[in-house]
Prior knowledge:
Helix content: 10-25%
Oligomer: single chain
Bound molecules: 2-acetamido-2-deoxy-beta-D-glucopyranose
Subcellular location: Cell membrane
Number of helices: 12
CATH topology of one domain: Leucine-rich repeat, LRR (right-handed beta-alpha superhelix)
InterPro entries: ABC1_TM_dom, ABC1_TM_sf, Leu-rich_rpt, Leu-rich_rpt_typical-subtyp, LRR-RLK, LRR_dom_sf, LRR_N_plant-typ
Strand order of the largest sheet: 21-23-25-27-29-31-32-34-36-40-42-44-46
Radius of gyration: 37 Å
Pfam family, one: LRRNT_2
Largest sheet: 13 strands, parallel
Family: Belongs to the RLP family.
Distance between the termini: 100 Å
Strand content: 15-25%
Low-confidence stretches: 8-20, 533-538, 668-696, 707-725, 750-772, 774-806
Structural class: alpha/beta
CATH class of one domain: Alpha Beta
GO molecular function, one term: ATP binding
CATH architecture of one domain: Alpha-Beta Horseshoe
Amino acid sequence: MVHLVLHLILLLLSCFPSLTHQACNSLDQESLLSFQLYISSSSLNWSSSSSSDCCLWEGITCDASGNVTHLMLPSKGLTGTISPSIGNLTHLSHLNLSHNRLFGPLPITSFSSLIQLQILDLSYNSLTGEFPSTLLSNHIKLVNLSSNLFNGLIPSSYFQQAGNLMSFNVSNNSFTGPFPSSAWTYYFCSVRLLDFSYNDFSGQIPPGLGNCSKLQTFRSGFNNLSGPLPDDLYTATSLEELSLAVNYLSGSISNGIVQLKSLTTLELYSNQLTGLIPKDIGKLSKLRHLPLHINNLSGSLPPSMQNCINLSTLNLRVNFLQGDIATFNFSMLLQLRTLDLGNNNFTGNLPSTLYSCKFLTAVRLTSNQLEGQVSPEIVALESLSFLSLSTNRLTNISIAIRSLMGLKNLSTLILSKNFMDEAMPDDDHITISDGFQNLRLLGFGGCQLSGKVPAWIAKLKKLQVLDLSLNKISGSIPGWLWTLPRLSYMDLSYNFMSGGLPKEFSGLQALVSEEVRNEVARSYLELPISVMSVNASDRQYNRLLYLAPTLNVSNNRLSGVIPVEIGQLKFLHVLDLSHNNLSGNIPEEMSLLTNLERLDLSGNHLFGEIPWSLKGLNFLSWFTIAHNNLQGPIPSGGQFDTFPNSSFEGNPGLCGAIVQRSCLNHPPTTTGLALPITESSNKELGYGVIDGAVFGLIIGITSGALYPLSKLKFLQHSSVGADFSDFSFLLSLGAVFIGFLLVLMMLVWCFLACHRRSMCFEKVVYMEISSLDEAEHSSDAIGAWLTTDAVAVRSLVGDALALLVQNIATIVAGLVIAFKSNWELTLLILVLFPLMGISEYSRWKSFK
Length: 848
Ligand SMILES: *[C@@H]1O[C@H](CO)[C@@H](O)[C@H](O)[C@H]1NC(C)=O
Ligand SMILES: *[C@@H]1O[C@H](CO)[C@@H](O)[C@H](O)[C@H]1NC(C)=O
Ligand SMILES: *[C@@H]1O[C@H](CO)[C@@H](O)[C@H](O)[C@H]1NC(C)=O
Ligand SMILES: *[C@@H]1O[C@H](CO)[C@@H](O)[C@H](O)[C@H]1NC(C)=O
Ligand SMILES: *[C@@H]1O[C@H](CO)[C@@H](O)[C@H](O)[C@H]1NC(C)=O
Ligand SMILES: *[C@@H]1O[C@H](CO)[C@@H](O)[C@H](O)[C@H]1NC(C)=O
Ligand SMILES: *[C@@H]1O[C@H](CO)[C@@H](O)[C@H](O)[C@H]1NC(C)=O
Ligand SMILES: *[C@@H]1O[C@H](CO)[C@@H](O)[C@H](O)[C@H]1NC(C)=O
Ligand SMILES: *[C@@H]1O[C@H](CO)[C@@H](O)[C@H](O)[C@H]1NC(C)=O
Ligand SMILES: *[C@@H]1O[C@H](CO)[C@@H](O)[C@H](O)[C@H]1NC(C)=O
Ligand SMILES: *[C@@H]1O[C@H](CO)[C@@H](O)[C@H](O)[C@H]1NC(C)=O
Ligand SMILES: *[C@@H]1O[C@H](CO)[C@@H](O)[C@H](O)[C@H]1NC(C)=O
C-alpha cells in the first residue's frame, strides 16, 4: 500500500517538469550573483551553496525552462541596494523583498524590463527616491511599497497602464502632491485595495472613485487632504473599509453613504466634518467600527443607529453633539465593546439601556452635562475595564462607589469633577472588602470632596495612579498610602492636608524597585486619557508607562521636615512639595533621585544651603526653591546653569551670579530676614482681603469723615471765625484725600486680588481635571496662561506688601500732620491705630 502511494507520488512528480531539475538559465544565475554582490546578509547562502543550479537556491523559483520567476527574500536581513542587474530577470513575476534593510533608489530603468512582474512587495525597507513609474507591466496586480522613504509625486498616468492592478499600497512614505486621480478615472477600474495613508498628499479627493465598483478598501488617512467627501464616493458599493482619518476634510457626511451597504469600517476621525450624523446610518447594518471623533459634528444620535447591531466601536468624542442620551436605545447594540461619547454636550441621566451591552470594556462619557446617579445596575457590565465619567454633574458618590465596586474587571475609574462638595465616602459606607481588586487608576480630582483620605484605598494593592487633587481633604497623609506597592503617580495637591510627610517611602515599591516598575510598565489603557504633562501641555496617554512617576502634595498645609528617606524613590520623575509649611534643610539625599525631571520646593520655610550634590540630577529640567529661607551660594554648573533666576527669588540669603549677589560680600547668615511669602490658599487670602477691606474702610471713613467734622466743631468754637485760607484746614483736606485714597487702594487691591486669584483657581481646577482625562479642545496655551497668572498672583501678593508699607507710611505722615493741627483728632486716630494694626496683622497672617 505504502509502495503504491510512493509510486503514485513519483509518477505525479515526474509530470512536473519544473521539479525535474531543468538547470537554471545561466543569464539569470549571473544576474542573481550580481544582485547578491550589492547586499550583505548573514542568512543568504547562494554562493556557498553546494548546488550550481540557481533554481534550488533559497527564495528562488524557476519555470519549466529554468527561467527565474520568483525572488522571495522577505525578512532575510538583506542590507544594501538593489542591483540594476535585477532587470535581466525578465521572467520575474513575483518579487518580495519586504522587511529588510535595503536602501537607496530603485534602479528604475532595470525595473522597466520586468515586463512579467505581477506582485511587487518592497515594504518595510528604507528605499528612497521617486515612484518607479516605468514599472509599466500591464500584468502588475499588486504593488506594496509601504513603509519606505519614497517621495515625490505618483504620476496619474501610471494607473492608465496598470489595467490589472488590484492592490496598490504606498502607505507610510513621503509622497507629496495632488492625489493621483487617474487611480480610478481610467475607464477600467479593477482595483480592490488602495492604501495611500501616512503620506503628504494634499488637495481634494478627485471624483471618479464611484467607477471602481470592485473597490473594497480605501485608506488615505494621515495625509493633508482637504475639501469635501466626493459625492460619487457613495456609488462604490463594494466598499467595506473607508479610512480617511486625520486630514482636513470638511463639509458633511451625506445621507447617501447608506448606499455603501457592505461598509464595516467608516473611519473619519480628526477632520473638520460638520453637519449631522447621517440619519439613516442604521441601514449600514454591517458596520462594526465607527470612529468619527474629533470633528465638528452636531445634532443628536440618530435613533436608527440602534440598528447597527454589529457595532463594536463607537467613538464620537470631541464633537458638538447634544441631546438627551438616555433616550437613545443601546439595548440592541449587543456587540458594543468601546463607547466614547466624551467632550460633547449630551444631557440627561446615564442611559440604563447601556447596561444590556454585556461585552462593553471601555466607556468614556467625560465632559458632557450628564446628571443623576450611577445606578447599581451598572454591575451588569461584567467586562467593563475602563470607565471615565469625569466632568459631568453626577451626584451621590457613595452610591457610585458602592455600585462600581462590584465591577470585578474595572481597572481604570475616573470620576473627577462630579459630586461637588459631597463627603468622601469612607469605611462607614463602604463595606465591600473585595471590591476594586483590579483597579489601577483612580481619579477623584476636583470634586471638592470633604473628609479624610478614605481608608478603603489601602486595600487597592494594584493601584498605580491616584488623583485626589483639588478636594477639601483634611487630616494627615496616612502612612499606608506609602505602602501601595504599585503606586507611581500620586496627586494630593490643593487639599487641606496637614501634619508631616510619612517617612516609610520604601513601601512605594514601584518607585523604589526596578522589578516592580517593569511589571507596572506593561499596563495599557483601553482608551486614551489626557493628562496635563509636567511641561504643562495636554498629552494623550494610552499607556500608563508614559505617565511620568509623580509625587505631588503641593498646596496643602504640610509641616515638618522633608524626610531623608525620600532619597529611596529613585524612579521618581516629578516631585512637587511646593506651597506647604515644610521647614528644615533640603536633604542631601535628594540627589539620589537621579531620574528627577521636575523638582518644586517653592513656597515653604526651608532654610540652610542648597546641597551641591543636586548638580548631579542630570535630567532636571525644572527646578524651583523660590520663596523659602535658603541661604549661601547657589550651585553652579550642570543643570543649574539652565534655571531662570525666578527659581531662586524670595531667598535673600542666596548668593551667586544668577541672583546678582556676590558670595564674597555675602557671608552665610544664620537667620534669614526674609519673610517667606507664599501663595496662601484661596480661603485664607479671601479672609485677608475681607479683613483688610473692612478695616481699611473703617479707617478711611473715620479719618475721612471725622477730620473735617472736628474741624467744623473747632471752627464753631473758634473766636477767629471761618478762615478758608487757614493752613491747617488745607492740611485737613489733604488728610481727607489721603483717607479716601486709602479706601480706594484697598478696594482696588481687593478687587484685583480676588479677581485674579479666583480666575487662577478656576483655571487650576480646569487644568487638574484635565490632569486626568479631558479635553482635546484645550491647548498648550492654558498651561502657558496658568504660569503667567501664577506669576501675576505672586507679584500681586508682593504688591500687597508694598501697599502695606505704603499705608503705614501714609498713616504716620497723617499723624504728624494731625498732631500739628489738632490734638483731638490725633487722639482719635491713635485710638484707631491698634485697630489698623490688627487689620494689617490679619492680612499679614493670611500671606504667610
Ligand atoms: C541555506 O540556508 C537555509 C537556511 O537559512 C537552509 O535551509 C538551506 O538548506 C541552505 N542552502 C544551502 C544550499 O546551503
Ligand atoms: C526562458 O528564457 C529564454 C531566454 O530568455 C527563452 O527563450 C525561453 O522561452 C524562456 N522560457 C519560458 C518558459 O518562458
Ligand atoms: C544585466 O543587465 C545589466 C544592465 O542592466 C548589464 O550591464 C549586464 O551585462 C547584464 N547581465 C548580467 C549578467 O548582469
Ligand atoms: C511578502 O512576504 C511577507 C513575509 O512572508 C508576507 O507577509 C507578505 O504577505 C508577502 N507579500 C505578498 C504581496 O505576498
Ligand atoms: C503589502 O500590502 C499587501 C496589500 O495591502 C499585503 O497583501 C501584503 O501582505 C503587504 N506586505 C506586508 C509585508 O505586509
Ligand atoms: C512607518 O515606517 C516606519 C519605518 O519604516 C515604521 O517604524 C513605522 O512603524 C511605520 N508606521 C506605520 C503606521 O506603519
Ligand atoms: C499596506 O501595507 C502595510 C504594510 O505592509 C500594511 O500594514 C497595511 O495593512 C497594508 N494596507 C492594506 C489596506 O492592506
Ligand atoms: C466613469 O465611467 C464612465 C463610463 O463607464 C465614464 O463615462 C465616466 O467618465 C467615468 N467617470 C469618471 C469620473 O471618470
Ligand atoms: C497642507 O495643505 C495646506 C493647503 O491645503 C498647505 O498650506 C500646507 O502647507 C500643507 N501642509 C503640508 C505639510 O504639506
Ligand atoms: C453580524 O456579524 C455576524 C458575525 O460576523 C454575521 O454573521 C452577521 O451576518 C452580521 N450581521 C449583519 C446584520 O451584518
Ligand atoms: C470646528 O470647530 C472648531 C472649534 O470650535 C473651530 O475652530 C473650527 O473653525 C470649526 N471648523 C469648521 C469647519 O467648522
Ligand atoms: C450645551 O447645551 C446647553 C444646554 O442644552 C447649551 O446652553 C450650551 O450652549 C451648549 N453648549 C455647547 C458648547 O454647545
